[in-house]
Amino acid sequence: MTIFIKPFRVKSNTQMKGSDKKKLKASLKKFFPNLSDEDLNSLLPTKEEIVVSKIFTFNEESVLLYNHNKNTVFFEMEKDKIFFPTVYTLWKYPELIPYLTTWPPVMSRIANGADLMLPGVIIDEEKGIKTYCDGKLAKGDLVSVNLQSNRAPVAVGTAWLSSEDMYMAAKKGKCVHTVHFYGDQLWAAGTKEQIPDLGGPDMGFLVRGDYYGEPSDEEDGDDEAANSDDNMNPVLDAVCKEVENLKVVGEEKSPNCDSEETAVIDNRTPQEINDELLDNAFLQSLKTSCNVKKAEFPMLTSNFYRLHMVEACPPECQLDVKKSSYKKLSKFLEKKERFGVIKIKELTKGVESIMSVDYEHEMVKHFRVVKHAKLVDDEAEAEVPVLPCDAKYEPPKIVELFSVTANVLKLFKTADIGKGRGLTAQEVRQVLTDYVKANQLKSDTPGLVRLDELLAELVLAKGDNSCKEMKWEDLQQFTISKMSPGYSLQFQDQPPSQYKGKLDPVELTTATRSGNKKVTLVNNLDTYQIDPSEFAHKCQVYLSVGTTVHPAPNRKSGTEVMIQGNHVAYAVKLLLEEYKINKKYIKGVENVPKPKKKK
């Protein structure tokens, strides 16, 4: 698996000094002798800002990124001291390192994190032992991968075998260990440039029939044309069969539905069937309910799935991400972002939103909308179960927690509870009760507890021996006051998630804009997974006023809803009655305008 297929963690960003730049260029010159001084100065200008970022990949491998103008130019494996060029650099210097060419359909495999295998490499067998990179490749050498249609590299990695060993392997086994590819997280961290068209590599030894399954000009009218399939390279023949088996996006027959008109057996796995169903629902929704005229962004990814993708699914089929190869909606949408169809951003911690859609993208443009016939069954209609994604908004289950700190650790260790564990107030009380019973600290006076050495250290100041007994309630309050606050959120059909600190309430404030106009500002809706766009639309329709949705100013993340006029009262009513948010988690109720007294 490639190291950048999953998000990485940035530890530090440091601007390089002039002396550090010279050392870096000297090291790169040794690794890439084909690069001239002018080329290095073009990639890493001396007088411009070069930033070195230390990151840790998902498998905790330390990597140094050398960045210029937001793009990573080179990256270095800190443990092995090996430099790699990125695809951004290779697009400028495609012959910087040796390259191998593969067929376009293989790119989808590489984009899923696969290594390049020997059967997928296009070779001229007449070269014999010099078939692979003119016989100059050693095991572990850097190598790039391009496509038969474009010599712009799409991946970079290390040679799994030497050129000679590749030839002797007779097209069996691994060829290149992929380290970085077009569309991975390293590419996505840059400017997300698309692959430039540099023209196809020199493939003069191929004929058209080898890949496209069409007769070449020389074979037209030839009596031996019928035998051309027998002479075809078996590897290319296998690729052709794979291409023929590919399904066209937007077929009118849904892959997950029973058909009485055909007896063709679908040999695909359930995962492949659900993958295609997801793809079709995604594109269908972008051409129907979430098209360029109707869509409002940013939009929560969960709402996009619930309100648009599920609706675009054929009525006789059930959309289920868990049964697909992606397992999670975020993984599916992440792939679409790599292809450039959508842009996703985490506006608040743990909550992703779709910021924009490229409706001119080839996948969207050429998709054919399928009209699904509605199932009519009045008797069964009432018995159809409501899918979780179709259910109305359900407020999260909020539980206030108190984390064990060093101040109270001795007490909770008696119950085998470690530092940092989050407990409810009831659980804290139970630990105290068990401790008092186990040590027989119950006082003769009802409602009081005798303080032993551990409890006295917990609740009394150092050297204070004046208090020998304490009320149960006071003891519990003293204990909780020395613990860190936290909370747990559990949304519908999701496991609970614990967080440190206090839960941010939904904030309702008023402000004055130019012309002494009042506006209502609503913040922190994302925390409760309330769609800000949907909330703004409800206010706009009910109040007949203008509303806007934008990133919250002076905050690290989140979305702010602005409503023209002082409408705190309606916002509170909407949160309480429709979204069922507890009043204690709504801040700003005091800003509700008081009714004017009648004269």
Can you offer a commentary on this structure?
- The protein has 599 residues and is an alpha+beta fold.
- 29% of the residues lie in helices and 22% in strands.
- It has 20 helices and 24 strands.
- The strands form six sheets. Strands 1-2-3-4-5 form a five-stranded antiparallel β-sheet. A five-stranded mixed β-sheet has the order 6-8-9-10-7. It has a five-stranded mixed β-sheet with strand order 22-23-21-20-24, with helices on one face.
- Strand 8 and strand 9 (150-159) form a beta hairpin.
- Helix 10 crosses helix 11.
- The chain starts with 8 loop residues before the first strand and ends in a 12-residue tail after the last strand.
Shape: globular
**Rounded radius of gyration (Å):** 32 Å
The pLDDT mean sits at 82
Strand tally is 24
Q: Taking strands numbered 1, 2, ... along the chain, how are they ordered across the largest sheet?
A: 1-2-3-4-5
* Classification by helices and strands: alpha+beta
List the uncertain runs. Answer: 211-236, 246-264, 377-390
- Largest sheet, strands/sense/barrel: 5 strands, antiparallel
Number of helices: 20
Estimated helix fraction: 25-40%
State the separation between the terminal residues, measured CA to CA: 77 Å
